Amino acid sequence: MEAPERVARPATRTSTTKPTGRRGSNLTGLIFLLPFLIVYTLFLLWPVILGLRMSFFNWSLVGGGASEFLGLQNYRELFGDPVFWVSLWHTGLFTLLSTPPLVLLALVLAMLVNRLRFAQWFFRFSFFAPFVLPVSVVALIWIWLFQPGFGLINSYLTSLGLGEVAWLPDKNVAMITAVLVTVWWTIGFNFVLYLAGLQEIPRDLYDASAVDGAGSLAQARWITIPMLSRTTVLVVVLQILASLKVFDQIYVMYTQGGLNYPATRPIIGYVFDQGFTSYRVGYASAMSYVFFVIILAVSVIWFVVARRRGESA
Amino acid sequence: MESGATTPSRAGKAPAGAGRSRVESGLAFGVLLVLAVLWLVPLAWAVDTALKPESETIVVPVSWIPSHFTLDAFKQVLDAGNILRWYFNSALTSVIITALVVLLASLAAYSFSRVPFRGRGVLFWVVLAGIMIPPQILIVPLFTEMNSLGFINTYQGIILPQIASPIAVFIFKQFFDGIPHELEDAALVDGASRFRIYWQIYLPLSRPAMAAVAIFTFVISWNYWLWPFIALTGTNMMTIPVGLATVQSAYGIHNAQIMASAVLGGLPLLIVFLFFQRQIVEGIAGTGLKG
Amino acid sequence: MFWNLFGGGDGIRLGTMENKFRRENPDLGLESVTLSWGSPYYTKLAMATVGGGPPDVAIMHLSRKGAFAPAGLLEPLDTDLLSKYGIGADKFLPAVWKSAEYKGNVYAVPLDTHPFVMYYNTDICKKAGLLGPDGQLKPLEGPDEVIHAFEAAKKVTGAFGLSFYPNDPAGGWRLFYTLYSQMGGKVLSPDTKEVVIDDAKARRVLEFMANLTLDSKVASADSAYPDSVALFQSGKAGFYWNGEWEVTTFQAAKMPFSIVPFPNVFGGNQAQADRHSFVIPRGVDAERREAAIKFISSMMKSSMTWAEGGHIPAYQPVATSAEYKKLKPQSNYAGVADDVVLDPLAWFSGSGSQMEIQASATFQAVMAGQLTPAQGLDKFKADLRTLIEAPKPF
Q1: Cα Rg, chain B, nearest whole Å
Q2: I need a labelling partner for A118 at 20 to 30 A (CA). Which of B263, C148, C195, C301 fits?
Q3: Whether the predicted pLDDT of A65 surpasses 90
Q4: Where in the sequence is the domain holding C29, given as residue range(s)?
């Protein structure tokens, strides 16, 4: 699938044989592109612009249109809004807590599975199956697992002589709960990425090192992990970006299971609440934009890092 | 050079025969088994609960084996009616979205790859830039826009925002770029229109890419929660993820039923996964390697 | 299409009432959907009304009127039509009816009043010597008597004297507002533009609340709602402060309990309460509106069933009936309806609102010892001011 890109674009070759000529191909090119472009502009680009516009107004969900022009007031308000910063903190904390396990555990799982000569199918299924489940199913299952008393987890804790944990309502535990569920749910994706990366590593390296007396751990340290660096960068960045956007599972576990929302509400959650619960879509748009800038910054940093790594490799 | 991809099970493994490696393999297998069981327990417990009589779901201490297994919970959930409607909504929207994503993206990608026209380069970057836009920031203005179009709580309101996928365009373009020009040149000499070339040569050849995009799009659109949650306000229009996240059981807390609805909600995609495991995994791997 | 937020025992009761309507009106095709209680319910209701596809009739806490009626999200109800189906103003107490009005129009039909009350375990209180010769709880008055009673109960249970749920988006607020109102305190000015809290009174209330969990330790600051139910039901607490709606839960568990109005702690009998009501979202067409009113009328007439769940019915023919007066323990506290205080009416307040959630979180922190009462009060006032100052979205 990765054939090298042709160097020369033989535009002149085709145009001399085609009756319609270059202008015709202009039209054709655009016509092919048009369906996609129309939908793309209307429903991806236009909302971005509209959102920016809305952020400058006291736009209301129920008012039906722009009310007063506020200029930068929404932005000024959000920078002084403690709940905005708390929500941002929740998102950051979630990212901080979820990224290491989702990266490291996925790597360990992939390395272990890669060693096996059989039953790979079974393990791939076990770790990846949760990923194809919708968030609601994941939430309902885990809410059930986290119940006090007859919930499976607390039940096993008490049978081991430990105390029960109020996984959902306790504000000191709720974030951990959200992270646990997310790790279970999404590790499969990173796991598969790592598996693919592992299979790209030439076997000769391992054979050669074994001849030199290297054991598994040494091999892992000196061959596997360095050779995986490109994959790791990809996994880490994708994971960070995904974690920053967290909302779905926290919200669904809150509404259907009583997860402590004030202790876990991420920035997207606050955007949702301001926009749809408090009707203040202008303010919500301003927050969305600030968040967008943060995401772009992370993406740009990755792009630069990946480029630099690519050059040095 | 021997590529690891051709002998996946041997890559990364120390030469067989060393006693150390067999112990290590055993250890690795043991650890994996424990972790895999841990990973499967939530699903197993959900299914187990769904098959129990309601009164036995809250027994303490917990037990995996009830007095008898029963399909009552499933029957009650299906009778309640909502979930079948949600299946229909999910299936309808996901199929349409998948078909349109493939069509629109492949058309656009063909144009980018093979049809020279003015502004092609710029437009390609404009499209690619769309990958950077997180859907989460769109929900507020999109609701406003869709509302003014009267598309809230409609199928088109769900479908339209999901059919323009820059990533799909990228994947198709990469694939098309790799198809030799000779095929197209020959067809052009024969007087074939661009569209025929696209439809009869490039599209069929791109089956691997098409499969990957189709499967991915289907899974992602089926599981999409955020926008449908906002845009589908009527309970009979909801898709499976939205319905399960919004509606509660009105008749007390029936845990077996809740688990039954969760199992039913997850089943379609688990089945899809079982059938298309290879494509899904290869799709992720392929995109990852390119990234 | 009918939306409600009644799960658990209330949900079952509602189902019975709905089935009666279905039997009598098979042609109207009632579909009832239950959504989760609280802020998400109102978000969904507002979005459905704005975006199209709202239910024909929905439950709304009257304390949320300020977020829905002025925003134009509700249909004004045709009073002639209401009278035609027997649910006109004459069937309700004037004060209750008035709370459903806004700027001269009627926007809701009140179903019930559900106040904050006190449950007590009759066995435990007997052992603690708290019952009078008639087997009823001796009335408690003043903060000291109340705490002593809880301490006595705690000695019997060995665990807690009082069950309560500070770890909840509504718990802390309900308790605070009850106690504060007993002192005659007000939170917001009538135009909801100013915070008019009496600092001294509010601080006393918070100190009392903190006392319960930190000093006399008769209650736990960590209890979430389900925990609190379980705690009282299993006899690990002798008293329980909550709304009356758990009556069926405890009756079904066959535990020995009764209910009395919330005690007079700070000089009054006020208790926080809210009212469930039926509303019709804006945009529902005339034909469905009439069907909705028919449905509401049927629900009202069945509100005896509803009252069995503990709520005080708003529909007078039921509230004044002999049958209702005989209900125990409902009759113990039915008189409270005159003394209830509803949440201050602003667009950001009411059941499941931002104000309630923030206040409850602050008050829980006070009860957990993370904030002093003075700090808690400052935070509460600051949060209120932020809500007031935010540009009103309509």
Answers
A1: 24
A2: B263
A3: no
A4: 2-113+273-336
- Per-residue pLDDT for C208 more than 90? yes
Domain shared by C129 and C26, yes or no: no
Q: Is the pLDDT of residue A188 over 60?
A: yes
Strand ranges, E, within chain C: 2-4, 32-35, 57-61, 101-102, 105-106, 108-121, 162-163, 239-243, 257-261, 271-279, 312-313, 340-342
The CB density around residue C253, as the number of other CB atoms within 10 Å, is 12
C368: its two tokens: 């957990």
The confidence score (pLDDT) of residue B17 equals 39
Nearest-by-Cβ selection for C51 from B153, B246, B251? B153
Q: In one letter, which amino acid is B152?
A: I
ipTM of the complex: 0.86
Is pLDDT above 80 for A66?
Answer: no
- Chain C contact for B117, CB < 8 A? no
Percent of chain C residues past pLDDT 70, beyond the cut: 100
- C33 and B80 in contact (C-beta within 8 Å)? no
Q: Taking CB atoms and an 8 Å cutoff, what residues of chain C touch A275?
A: none
CB of A247 within 8 A of CB of A269?
yes
Using the 8-state DSSP alphabet, how is residue C36 labeled? -
Give CA–CA dist C393/C68, Å, rounded: 12
C171 vs B185, residue with greater confidence: C171
Do C285 and C198 lie in one domain? The reply is no
A235: closest CA of chain C, how far (Å): 34
What are A103's two structure tokens? 């990266």
Among candidates C330, C338, C216, C366, which has minimal Cα distance to C269? Answer: C338
Chosen for mutation from C34, C47, C357, C367 (greatest number of chain A CBs closer than 10 Å) is: C47
Residue A299 lies in a domain: no
Query: Does some domain include residue C394?
Result: no
Tell me what the pLDDT averaged over chain C comes to. Answer: 89
Do C249 and C305 lie in a common domain? no
Is residue C295 very low, low, confident or very high in pLDDT (cuts 50, 70, 90)? very high
CATH code of the domain containing A189: 1.10.3720.10
In a domain, C45, yes or no: yes
| Beta partners for residue A60, in sequence order | A65, A280
Indicate whether C332 and C350 sit together in one domain.
Answer: no
Domain count, chain A: 1
Looking at the structure, tell me whether residues C163 and C250 fall in a common domain: yes
Give residues 21 to 80 of A whose Cβ lies within 8 Å of B: 22, 25-30, 32-33, 35-37, 39-40, 42-48, 50-51, 54, 59, 61
- For residue A262, the enclosing domain spans 88-268
Q: Name the DSSP letter for residue A224.
A: I
Which residue in B has a C-alpha nearest to residue C43's C-alpha? B230
* pLDDT value of position C217: 87
Considering only CA atoms, which of C185, C219, C191, C242 is closest in space to residue C377?
C185
| Mean per-residue pLDDT, C221-227 | 84
Question: What average pLDDT score do residues A27-33 get?
Answer: 82
